[in-house]
Amino acid sequence: MNLFTDAVAQIEDAYDELNHKLGWRFLYSPSRTLSSNVPIFFAGLNPGGNSYEPPKASVEEGNAYLVEGWKDVHHHDKLQRQVCLLYEKVANKLGTVNRDILMDNSLVTNFCPFRSSDWKSLPNRKKSEEFSRKLWFHLLTHIVHPSVFICLTHKTFDEFRNLLLQLGYVEQQSVSKLTGWKDTTYTKTYLVRDNHDVLMLRLPHLSRFSIIGDKPKYSAAVEDFTDAIARQISTYPLN
After folding, report:
1. Rounded to an integer, what distance in angstroms lies between the CA atom of residue 118 and that of residue 193?
2. Nearest-5° angle of CA 109, CA 115, CA 121?
3. pLDDT band at 78 (very low <50, low <70, confident <90, very high)
């Protein structure tokens, strides 16, 4: 059993054991992104929804934020549009790869695979968190770590940061700055282990905070963190 199929089996067992009812999703990218040397790890907190959807282990067609329609079958919702704009800005700064290739070569997931209408209503939340930590600790022990972790929300960021620290990374620098949306901030944190540098970027949830686009009041923040992402992955052989 390989890393991907083993993780799926664990999720299936935990889904039943923890009495989840709304379905689950694991990877929002092709299964190959779990084991290949990808530049970006993109994570939300957990799949949203208040009605049942069949479980989905991966999206072999590409990045779900790009290839699926969440508003309706043919159209992206606000979160998808924001994520696509984020990747487009990074790809333009790299100048060596287009948005779609960069997106399809990212490992895309959530901290917790189980669906709920919101985090507070997640069934057996404490045990679901514990399962998710154990799952990702195991997975991060066995994959080549991307150089950039993009995390939506404080909770997602804190969980993956703590996992990297447990795996031996040392925090070198961390700075939080205003996004331009009232007092909402983003955070850039740099960690290192065995000469491998990692940038962890915390963003507010882009389904609510539409900061990426052409609005001048957000431009300084967006230019700053997309510059940081592009610098961090500039040596990856993407084509």
Report:
1. 34
2. 125
3. very high
- Residue 239: its pLDDT value, please? 60
* Euclidean distance between CA atoms 99 and 91, whole angstroms: 5
State the DSSP H helix or E strand holding residue 222, giving kind and residue range, or none if neither: helix 216-233
Enclosing H/E stretch for 82: helix 78-94
pTM over 0.90: yes
Q: How far apart are CA 80 and CA 124, in angstroms?
A: 28
pLDDT tens digit string along 197-215? 999 999 999 999 999 998 9
Question: How many other C-beta atoms are found inside a 10 Å radius of the C-beta of residue 15?
Answer: 20
The pLDDT value recorded for residue 69 is: 86
Give pLDDT, residue 71. Answer: 75
Instruction: Tell me the C-alpha distance between 125 and 130, whole Å.
Output: 9
Q: Is 229 helix (H, G, I), strand (E, B) or coil?
A: helix
**pLDDT tens string 184-197:** 999 999 999 998 99
User: Where are any strands of DSSP class E within the chain?
Assistant: 40-44, 107-110, 148-152, 170-178, 185-193, 196-203
Q: How far apart are CA 107 and CA 31, in angstroms?
A: 9
Domains delineated in the chain: 3-232 (3.40.470)
The structure tokens 């990374």 sit at 169
